[in-house]
Write a structure and sequence with these properties.
Keywords: Acyltransferase, Transferase. With 498 residues, the protein is α+β, with helices and mostly antiparallel strands. It is built from 14 helices and 23 strands.
């Protein structure tokens, strides 16, 4: 019988980092006590990012390690902040990740342990499953949650054959313990008293399933080399480890100082970190907590060395840019309403019929390649753009999302509407051929330059507040400077000189 376990993984943490000292400085007049927790940074989404765009990025990193002819047959998206209540979010991710229309898709939420629950479900079914977890939780300005909570996504591919870590056992307990909650019509979590949440909930609920899991596996707590307990805090994780006989040194750091607590994504984000530091034969215990607890046990295989070449938490956290503008952060999250002028007074209704016809281009970043002359072009059109060819109906689909690219021309427009001005757009040259007019994101004013390297990323295009619809597209962004790279990153230097 083939081993079943974790085949590959990917992580995504937004480039923007907000220093906690910036938050405390802005709110010290109302809550001077925040200064005691002013160390480190939290990862924050830009104006055109949400849980769905982050999920797409993490999924693509995870799939970059898989052969194209061995794509997952199921995708599960776990989140407590899905953009849509009645439009399957996982279906959008599947199209943006260029998965087949035959891929089964499902959304899973309702608890911060949903990411671990989705991973457990994937491990217990046949076939190959892509599990993606992401959260972009809103927090009330000036409160402790604003300091603690960050944004991120993580993706795990589960299957059979030659996994990085094999699945050994699992235990779960369901307890309706409401240490915090958020109703369906609320923006913010309601948090109860932390000491009660710890003593009556965390320390009472969590040790049982962990001890049971260790007993089921026929090992001792001292055999756990990596204890991944997300969202508990380092001190609480060490306390639980001690109660269960797990060495204190096995506790995976919670990354509070680096990115904050990223909700449903956090257990899987920390798991990528543990996988990249594990040695063959070591046991990894993953815990998900929220209205109960779920614990999964893995054993690193002889192929765990492959994990070092994948895009995990450490690579993403090493590539960040500090944003010291607290007012901009509030604006990005809708906490302040800026006056964007008359250009914001528009009806940005989405033409759904046109969007459906062109969804391969808009959601999948699929262009065309002329079969008569070989010219790649984006978007695909009936007539070849090559003036020496002009063949009709000659194009086959050509993916552009992973193509390296560079700036051919650009405009910084301070008059056009942008929620992070100026609006930046221009011509993007793709390696191997193809030029497209696209919007740029994640650049600061005066930072763009002709020939600068670019990568494509799935982002928010517009939000129709009147009808509650979000429109997405692909934008050109600076390539992430990661210690491990996708194919596009490796070829980027060649594109900038193409």
């Amino acid at each position: 019988m083939q081993q079943r376990g974790i085949i590959s993984f990917g992580a995504y943490v937004p480039r923007r980092r907000l220093a906690r000292r910036t938050i405390c400085s802005a709110n010290s007049w109302a809550n001077p006590g925040l200064a005691a927790t002013a160390h480190g940074h939290k990862a924050i989404c830009s104006h055109d990012e949400d849980s769905l765009t982050m999920a797409v990025a993490a999924a693509r990193y995870a799939l970059a390690e898989r052969p194209e002819d061995n794509a997952p047959d199921m995708l599960v998206f776990a989140s407590t902040t899905m953009p849509f209540a009645d439009r399957q979010n996982a279906g959008v991710i599947a199209e943006a990740a260029s998965l087949s229309e035959n891929t089964c898709t499902a959304d899973m939420g309702g608890s911060l342990k949903a990411g671990v629950g989705a991973l457990r479900m994937a491990l217990e079914r046949p076939g190959e499953t892509l599990v993606v977890a992401a959260d972009k939780r809103l927090t009330r300005p000036g409160g402790p949650q604003e300091l603690r909570i960050g944004d991120a996504a993580a993706a795990i591919v589960v299957g059979e054959g030659d996994p990085l870590a094999e699945f050994v056992a699992r235990r779960a307990v369901s307890v309706d313990f409401t240490d915090h909650y958020r109703s369906s019509d609320a923006q913010f979590d309601y948090q109860l008293e932390e000491r009660w949440a710890r003593d009556a909930g965390l320390l009472h609920i969590v040790p049982g399933p962990i001890r049971g899991l260790i007993e089921d596996a026929g090992i001792g707590g001292e055999n756990i080399a990596h204890f991944v307990a997300a969202g508990l805090g380092n001190r609480n994780a060490r306390t639980i480890a001690k109660h269960c006989g797990i060495p204190e040194g096995a506790v995976t750091p919670d990354l509070h100082a680096e990115c904050g607590d990223t909700g449903t994504a956090h257990p899987l984000l920390l798991l990528t970190k543990a996988l990249q530091s594990a040695a063959p034969g070591e046991f990894i215990l993953l815990l998900g907590y929220g209205q109960g607890a779920e614990a999964l046990l893995f054993r690193a295989t002889d192929t765990i060395g492959r994990a070092s070449g994948m895009t995990g938490a450490d690579a993403m956290l090493a590539d960040g840019v500090e944003d010291g503008n607290y007012l901009r952060f509030l604006s990005f999250n809708g906490h302040v309403s800026m006056d964007w002028g008359m250009r914001a007074e528009r009806d940005n209704r989405t033409a759904q019929s046109a969007f459906f016809r062109h969804r391969d281009t808009v959601t999948g970043c699929i262009g065309g390649r002329c079969t008569a002359c070989g010219t790649p072009q984006f978007p695909k059109s009936r007539v070849c753009v090559n003036p020496g060819c002009r063949a009709t109906d000659s194009q086959v689909s050509e993916p552009f999302a992973d193509k390296p690219a560079s700036v051919k021309s650009f405009t910084e427009d301070w008059l056009a509407l942008s929620f992070n001005p100026p609006l930046m757009y221009g011509n993007v040259r793709f390696a191997g051929g193809g030029v497209a007019m696209l919007e740029f994101s994640d650049f600061e004013p005066s930072e763009l330059a002709v020939g600068a390297p670019l990568a494509m990323q799935f982002r928010l295009k517009d939000v129709d507040d009147r009808r509650g619809f979000r429109r997405y597209c692909w934008k050109a962004v600076p390539p992430r400077e990661l210690s491990t790279h996708t194919t596009a990153d490796k070829e980027m230097e060649g594109a900038s000189h193409g």
